[in-house]
Amino acid sequence: MSRAIYPGSFDPVTFGHIDIIKRSSAMFDEVIVGVLNNSAKNPLFSTEERMEMLMETTKEFDNVKIISFGGLLIDYMKDNDISVIVRGLRAVTDFEYELQIAQSNRKVSKETIDTVFLTTSIEYAYLSSSIVREYASYGTDVSDFVPAFVAQRLENRFR
Ligand code: ADP
User: DSSP assignment of 18-59, as one string?
Assistant: First the structure.
């Protein structure tokens, strides 16, 4: 069975993330969306809230599972028998960082882990959770960027 993990902060989930989840769910038998539980990042939404929003937005995909992880991603992968990481690439600015992480994960895992990159769909190329948070914090409507109920959560959070 082919299993892949799609890790990230998802603070909050955007249409860009959903696009990557949908496309990877068609490529792998199972896709595990891994929400990074890292208090140092000081997220807007708690790990539980981010997971809940992901569950709601991905419920139509039977082979997608939402989990959270602390610590090292590759340790979680080893413990759970997952050997592929999925990441999204938006622009060249993502490339250098992603390349470094992918190469070091490959090295540290003794060549047992590979990273697969999906290029963003063009309509979401500019989209990031941080831009969404920024707009929402000024009361701007973000329903073009995130599902309606996520936009509502953002509005409540900043009210
Ligand atoms: P991280 O903090 O790990 O970058 P994010 O939640 O910002 O977590 O992103 C998780 C993954 O989703 C990353 O691979 C990122 O490149 C990808 N991603 C984010 N936004 C988009 C988008 N608009 N289109 C495609 N991929 C995206």
Answer: HHHHHHHHTTSSEEEEEEE--GGG--SS-HHHHHHHHHHHHT
Gap from CA of 107 to ligand 1 centroid (Å):
22
Q: Taking residues 74-79, what's their average pLDDT?
A: 96
Catalytic residues: 17, 41, 90, 129
- Name, in order, each residue with C-beta under 8 angstroms of 147's C-beta and a sequence gap of 6 or more: 13, 15, 18, 56, 57
Report domain extents, the chain. 3-122
- From 87, 124, 145, 150, mutation site for ligand 1 pocket: most ligand atoms within 8 A of C-beta: 87
Dump pLDDT digits (tens) for 25-76: 999 999 999 999 987 789 999 999 999 999 999 999 999 999 999 999 999 9
Question: In CATH, what number does 3-122 get?
Answer: 3.40.50.620
C-alpha to C-alpha distance for 59 and 99, rounded to whole angstroms:
31
pLDDT at 118: 96
Q: How far is the CA of 62 from the centre of ligand 1 (A)?
A: 22
86 Cα nearest atom in ligand 1: 14
Q: Which two tokens stand for residue 121?
A: 């769909």
